[in-house]
Amino acid sequence: MQYNTDINIIGSIPDYHLIYRSLPLLINNPAELENILVTNNEFDFRTEKSRKRFLSLLNSAFVSKSEAIDELASSLMLSFKNDENAQALLLFWLFSINNKLFFELNRDIFLKYYLQGRAELPKEAVVAYIKDLISTNEDLKGKWSEITIETIASKYLTVLKKLKLVEGTKKKKFTLVRVSDELLAVFVHIISLLDNKKANFLEDDFLSFTFISKENILARLKQIGKKEWIKLNFNGVSLQVEPVFNNNNIIDGIFRRA
Are the beta carbons of 134 and 140 closer than 8 angstroms? Predict the structure, then answer.
């Protein structure tokens, strides 16, 4: 996966309801989405170029290499249509899966600071991280100017704010993110569909994306296991977690039992 600046475009989208509405159509009926977005301009973009750019971004940022993940994401986004917080969290996970820079910024800065209990996420920390990344990555050396780096950092924080993960204007303060048992079970299912998942969930880079500390995650997963939403096996060192449901019955199995 190559680094790109999709963060800048996503940070510039004023209304994320456009994304929530578009994703299921993009995956299930792309021709209808193109008709709604490009031909009829129902989202009221000013130019045809901006409509096509938005469509291209959806594909780049949210369509994965896994058809199973895309199908599940579509079903979940529709199921969460009356729960914007759940939609936002799902979008956070999907963009992290599909965008290398967003994933690494989340893993190494945002979630690290969040789980340390810090109050704020300073833009300076994001800028410093990107500059360090450029200095150690041959593919990025000389690729992004100072202005581009500043823009990425600013738009990254804007994305987090629009996803309800930070708040504030000048200073971005962390919001308290509560991942319900239902959403945690969904997350386990999504991670199980990744090719690069770790056998030991405690060593997986995506562990912190649960917003639960390593010390508390086992207890939360056991709680879900008792509801028979996931299977888990812990030998004192390694934790193996598996979904119980498949894409066709996960929504009924988890949310309509709850």
Answer: yes
Q: What is the pTM of this model?
A: 0.94
**6 vs 62: CA distance, rounded Å:** 10
Contact (CB, 8 A) for 210 and 184: yes
What's the rounded Cα separation, in Å, for the pair 214 and 219? 10
Structure letter (DSSP) for residue 107: I
- With cut-offs at 50, 70 and 90, classify the pLDDT of residue 232: very high
**Burial (Cβ within 10 Å: 0-12, 13-18, ≥19) of residue 198:** middle
Angle between helices 67-79 and 181-192 (to 10 degrees): 160
The predicted-structure confidence for 68-112, as pLDDT tens digits, reads as follows: 999 999 999 999 999 999 999 999 999 999 999 999 999 999 999
Helix, strand, coil: what percent of the chain each, to 5? 60, 5, 35
Q: Supply the pLDDT for residue 155.
A: 97
